[in-house]
Design brief:
This protein is of the alpha/beta class. It contains eleven helices and 15 strands. The chain has a single domain, classed as Phosphatidylinositol (PI) phosphodiesterase (TIM Barrel). Helices cover about 30% and strands about 20% of the residues.
Length: about 325
Amino acid sequence: MKPPLIPVLLAILVSCQQKIDLDAGIIDGEDTAVCWMTPLADDTPLTCLSIPGAHDAASATITAFRRWTRTQELDIAGLWNCGVRAFDLRPAWVDGSMGLYHDKYSAHVSFKAVIDALILALDRHPGEGAIVIIRHEEEADGNAPEWASELGSILDGRRPQLASWSQDMTLGDLRGKILVLSRNAYAGGPIGGYLHGWTSSADASAQRGARVADEAGGEHPFWVQDYYHPDGADDKWEEIRDMLDASADVEEPHPLVVNHASGYLGKLPDYRGNARNVNAKTAEYIKSLGGPAGIIMMDFAGVDRSGGTEVGGKKLVEAVIGRN
């Protein structure tokens, strides 16, 4: 006897909403994850690591207008398994839930599910660590007043698994934990740190004038290059290169550096076009650096092709990891 059609369809719909299987865990039973942090020395300064990151990390599961809304091919599990350890997450409070979004488009996964999946991954691989950079995706929830209290509650309930930022933070301090750095204030925060002065400017002085605030209110150097809508691919490449050079040459104390290879070209967001132009080039340049690359936030991390376009994301992840 065939099951009724409507319950079957409802079951399929529910299963499509759950993108992370917390019973199986973010790491599969074959233990295929690239655990590149584990062999490194505990006393390695966090700011002197080269860390592959994923811009709009949850966007692979967006179903609406995918050509213009997706910046990743791999879901969170796939990104973790290929070695990504910095995740740009965009939570918004919509319909009574803290989901993840890119602009107003849902990734059909909750912020809690991703944080809990990363916690499980770190429990299974305690030699690794993760960094989560949060931006309130106000475009999705209209700057909902509940956002600050709900985000604070989620993080406070997971405080033992979250690291606290300090300027002299080492890899040993991060192992087995998530460092949460938020661009927006929330109730009871920061749990980890706040990022002040974030800019999308191409001006070097603005990029190097940002600060990261610790839990006690102290502020420390933070450099960010997030020139996400350049006039041309060469303009974006020059910004990436200049920040790489500055990061490799700076004297101690080394600032926290977030350098975005991500971005888009044209009036309609062409993320693949930008990735095609900068990812592989950035990978080759990183191989020649004499110092750390910082956190490299990229589109299409872990894959070299997307939608028939050469995007160089696997090459870039491997080059960043190889810089350590």
